[in-house]
Amino acid sequence: MNEVGWSFLGFETMQPTLEALLLSNWRIVPVYEMAIAPQSAPQQGQADRWRPKPKVVKYRAWRDEFAAHWQPEWKLPEMPVFIFGMPMPKSWSGKKRERMNGTVHLSRPDTDNMIKAVVDSIYRLPRYEGRNDSEVWCAVGLKFWSCEGYVKIGRLVQG
Question: Are 81 and 28 contacting, i.e. CB atoms less than 8 angstroms apart?
Fold first, then answer.
């Protein structure tokens, strides 16, 4: 979509910053925070049921770890905002790590695949049996560089 198509949202710029992503009358209310490095959901085929690829095995282990972090009383907000803290590579110098901490993460993994991983992990829990992730009709995903990996889930509210 070109910039003209975004004008109805009131965007002043198309820069990937939090201010550019949110409408002026919308805000994020923090809900949950987990100290777990984000992981994206890989593409899985039929053969991954009996002979999973290494990336699928890694994802399934992460999914189980995420589910262990998810508290029984937690509920996915109606309009969730997923904020991912992407851990910086150990090879980066201290100066570069300091400069990049908190800045927008523009490389892979893709935000939509990380949202899918989180939502799939939540909907695999027993209390969501019989339900699926099609109930999520609106989601916002943001990813930033951070010293340690994290997943934060907030709620988008107007006002």
Answer: yes
Name the pairing type of β-strands 26-34 and 80-87.
unpaired
Of 53-62, 108-117, 120-129, the range with the lowest mean pLDDT is: 120-129
Please name the amino acid found at residue 106.
Answer: L
The whole-angstrom separation of Cα 77 and Cα 97 is: 32
pTM (two decimals): 0.81
Mean pLDDT of the chain: 83
Which three-class secondary structure state does DSSP give residue 139? coil
Q: Is 84 helix (H, G, I), strand (E, B) or coil?
A: strand
| Sign for the pseudo-dihedral over CA of 99, 100, 104, 106 | positive
